[in-house]
Amino acid sequence: MDVKIDSEWKEILKDEFDKEYFRNIVSFLHREKREGKTIYPPGSLIFNAFDTTPFSKVKVVILGQDPYHGAGQAHGLSFSVPDGIPVPPSLKNIYKEIEDDLSVRINKNGSLVQWARQGVFLLNAVLTVRASSPTSHSAIGWSTFTDAVIKALSDKKEHLVFMLWGNFAKSKKSLIDCRKHLVLEAAHPSPLAHGAFFGCHHFSKCNRYLQEHGEAPIDWTK
After folding, report:
1. Cα dihedral angle (103, 52, 212, 155), rounded to 10 degrees?
2. What is the similarity comment for this entry (predicted)?
3. CA separation, residue 57 to residues 17, 39, 121 (Å)
4. Are 160 and 213 a contacting pair, CB within 8 Å?
């Protein structure tokens, strides 16, 4: 597997890459490809979140569950899609909450690369998926890897903001030291949550916390 990942993350996670469960993930993905199955995101983008937001730059963590399983959608950043791809429903709701929370207007596409470059680590708990088959790779070991990622962020950094949306993301709270990080919990932004996400004010709370701890706020309109 062609691992394109920032050198800081490579050093932090080197022990994980050497473990048997991770070798099993790689073997599974190679087998899927040999069998002619299409996997999203493309191999070079599986670790895009890690490559775009180096460990030292992480200020905010937004945890997703599974990559998009439609053609051209997944590019290794949770909730994000590449330029030119229609904005997914959950992301539309995220934008609406930002507008209401911060009294701004968002006129942007579905790419969240600029968030990632500001220090928003857009992590999916599962990093790959078979085309048109949601959660198809949820049991191959990725959660073990990303749990280690969340734990490393919690242990080695201070004053991060973790945004946990929906029950799956909330289940990861036990990995985070809430004494030195801000953990924000809300319903999932999916339309299936019937608007329960709205009014969480996570984006203003996040920026206020960052500024209180000497960090520049995130420009969520970029």
Report:
1. 140
2. Belongs to the uracil-DNA glycosylase (UDG) superfamily. UNG family.
3. 22, 29, 9
4. no
The residues that are catalytic are 66
Higher pLDDT, 23 or 1: 23
Please measure the distance between the N-terminal and C-terminal CA atoms of the chain and give it in whole angstroms.
32
With left for phi above 0 and alpha for psi between -120 and 50, is residue 101 left, alpha or beta? alpha
User: Can you tell me the distance from the alpha carbon of 182 to that of 205, in angstroms, rounded to the nearest whole number?
Assistant: 9
Q: Are 102 and 87 in contact (CB under 8 A)?
A: no
What are the tokens at 56? 């030292």
Read off the pLDDT of each residue in 20-24 and give the average, rounded to a whole number: 98
Return the pLDDT at 207: 98
pLDDT tens track for 122-139: 999 999 999 999 999 999
Question: Which of these, 215, 205, 155, lies nearest to 184 by C-alpha position?
Answer: 205
pLDDT of the residue at 38: 97
Mean pLDDT of 156-179: 97
Three-class secondary structure of residue 116 per DSSP: helix
Query: What pLDDT, on the 0 to 100 scale, is given for residue 4?
Result: 83
- Rounded to two decimals, the pTM is 0.97
Instruction: Classify burial at 158, counting beta carbons within 10 Å of its beta carbon; exposed 0-12, middle 13-18, buried 19 or more.
Output: exposed
Q: Which residue has the tokens 């070991």?
A: 141
